[in-house]
Amino acid sequence: MVAATTARAAAERPQAHAAHPLAPEPPEGFWYSVKCRVLGPPLVTGQLAGERLSRPLALGVLSCDGLSSAAYGTEEILYALLPFFGLAAFTLVLPLTLVVLFGVLLVVLSYREVVSVYTRAGGSYVVARENFGPRVAQVAAVALLIDYVVTVAVQTAAGSAAIVSAFPALSRVPVIGPKILLVISVAAICGMCLGNLRGIREAGRVFALPTYLFAGSVLVMIITGIVRELTSGLTRVTPGAGAVGMGSHSGLIAIGAVYIMAKAFANGGSSLTGIEAVSNAVSALRPPEGRHARQILATQGTIVAVLIAGISWLAHVTHAIPYTAGFPTVIAQEAGTVFGQSPIGRVMFLVLQAATAAILFTGGNTSFTGFPFLASFVAEDSFLPRWLNRRGHRLAFSNGIILLAALSVTLMLVAGATVDALIPFYAIGVFTGFAMAGFGMARYHRRTREPGWRRKLVINLAGGVYTALVVLLFAVVKFTEGAWLIVIIFPVLVFALIRLNREYRAEAECLAGSGHTGPRTQPPNYSRRVVLLLVDGYDLATIAALKYARGLRPTSLRAVHFSLDGARADQLRRQWVDAGTGIPLELIDCPDRRLSHAAGRLAHSFAAAPGTHVTVVLPRRCYPPLAGRLLHDHTADRIARVVSRVPDAAATIVPFDVRHKVATTGAKRARLAAAARPGRLEDYEWPAPPPGTIPIGSLHQPGHATVQGRLRAAEIRSSQPAGTSVLACEVADSTGEITAVFLGRAHIIGIEPGNRIRLNGKVGIGADGRPTMMNPAYELLP
């Protein structure tokens, strides 16, 4: 009869699981709940794949950074020329613009060769790594990382200036008015950081809209301005308070003229930034990726050149002048003059400013994709900390995004929130990346000698030389204005990345065992295992560690306390004896208070015996991160480090979460207090059987039944003849009790005293008259 009952119970076991397929999850922490509310629910790795970009969409998405630079390139040239050359600056801006456009041509031609060969993300970093090796590639890595940080600051500052240029009243707002550009910029960076942490995708059509809107509105302004100049003529802008001062020189005779021209050219070189963005996202294009990338680069370069030339020409005609505060911008003054003050002109002016702000903020947002991806590439090569290679809650590289936002905000707080204040930090990183790509491709062509390699070699070599000269020029003319910081930081960061890689490689060789000089032997077979339990006090953490130590089934188990205070050691000994652990507590004097040294020496004394392995078990009490650092030391970690150096010895830390224990203890006390209050006792009484169930007290005959009640107790027993675990649960309602037996189960999540449960199965009546269910189907109730 028992065998038949067991067989039937085993056959019904799948039914029990079907009735409760999903076990309740453990409660989430407070900060995880906050993260889910702010960032949204977590994404799974399977959602990582994205859609490839078509050419029109890719042009809009990948060109926003390059096109947005045209919004402030001309203004920065004038910023350098006007204080020295005066009105002649509006004539000199045209030849300097031509030199800048020549640079645009060289960079576009150079990067066309890059995207033809390297059709995956990485840009100049991948080019340098493949052609110069991983160490030299860190020059490109540092250049690009600095470029991304400064790009966020420059683009958001320029976007903020566009907003204030459209609405000058913002600069007169009390308290924040004088710092309005900084306030808007920091808010924009925080917004972009939050959006990217939530997992926004640049492949969306919304990111292509600002590019086309900006290019279209600026082209309309340029065409309208040229038509008006040829027909009725354009009025000149009248400078207001705060405009950049004009010098008195009218020609190129002055001794510092060459220096000033070089400085203006360096400022204008900022217009080239962002052109390389296509090379960093070739893998996102539809196949054939290389051909589409070349077409996009050519189209982007043409549009950038037209916009820069047109804005410079209108500046030459209207005499739009930069302002020291950063607003109104040159392009805003040109738009106001070209479109006029009519209602339609005012609408066109606001559309242009909105498009300018949108593309500048969007261009800044591209760094929040480029920086984390590049950092993950470099971290994958073991030149940056590996936590930058870890995807976060929403599949974004969250650590890289947060780091970029923090560095960008810090830069703006230190240098200021105007484009001119940030430009000295800009072009060194950008043009170093250009130069590395050019020289890397030149080496590739010389090594592979593919068809047409000589022509391609000349193009890439010219691009590398041009951009390298810009780097040197910028380092000289902008040195005192902030470029000195980049000149110092740059080699320091390159050295730091190489040094970090050396550390990673040394660790990897050590862990792989490649540093072993002797003959390889089989792992030793220890005949004796000694477990040392280090006891600092008798509490729940020590009890948990003692249970773990017993579970190791050692040859010898010893409890050891290093005595630093005689009175405290005596008190601990009395507690240990009263607890009746069955293991004697050894007190070892430690007069020099070097616990780590004493633990290592003790482990070595046991491990010195042939065929002996020593395991040191360390209870560690885990506290909240801040409290743990401020209120508690990390003795267990220090001891574990020393013990791990002893041959034939290992350290095992058994953590005990004090914070969780405090929280659960407080919750239990609150429940008990609530149960003691009048009017709340019914929550803990045995429930009455609801309709559709059978009262447990009425079960006196075998049969099939559905009952419902509260779990009163749960006990683990052993069954015969197999000796497997059995979980026996007592379930009660207001009429009686029933025993539910689950064969082969030591624990079931949710089967805990106090929880409500519904059982469905065959009822048996024991010799004592109590009803029993073997492996019933169960359902946990709220």
Specify Rg, calculated over alpha carbons: 37 Å
Largest beta sheet: strand ordering: 3-2-1-4-5
Low-confidence residue ranges: 1-26, 514-519, 674-684
Helix segment count?
26
Question: Which whole number gives the mean pLDDT?
Answer: 78
Strand segment count: 11
Distance between the termini: 37 Å
Q: What portion of residues is helical?
A: 55-70%
Helix vs. strand class: alpha/beta
Choose one word for the global shape. elongated
Q: How would you classify the quaternary structure? A: single chain
Percentage beta strand: 5-15%
- Main β-sheet, in a few words? 5 strands, parallel
Protein topology:
Elements: H1 2-11, H2 13-19, H3 30-39, H4 55-62, H5 64-68, H6 70-85, H7 89-117, H8 124-132, H9 134-166, H10 180-197, H11 209-231, H12 257-268, H13 289-318, H14 330-339, H15 343-380, H16 398-415, H17 419-422, H18 427-448, H19 453-477, H20 483-512, E1 528-534, H21 540-551, E2 556-563, H22 566-579, E3 585-589, H23 595-607, E4 612-622, H24 625-631, H25 635-643, E5 649-657, H26 658-676, E6 703-718, E7 725-732, E8 737-743, E9 756-765, E10 771-774, E11 777-781
Parallel strand pairs: 1-2, 1-4, 2-3, 4-5, 8-10
Antiparallel strand pairs: 6-7, 6-9, 7-8, 9-10, 9-11
Helix pairs in contact: 6-7, 6-12, 6-13, 7-12, 7-13, 7-18, 7-19, 8-9, 8-18, 9-10, 9-15, 9-16, 9-18, 9-20, 10-15, 10-16, 11-13, 11-14, 11-15, 12-19, 13-14, 14-15, 15-16, 18-19, 23-25
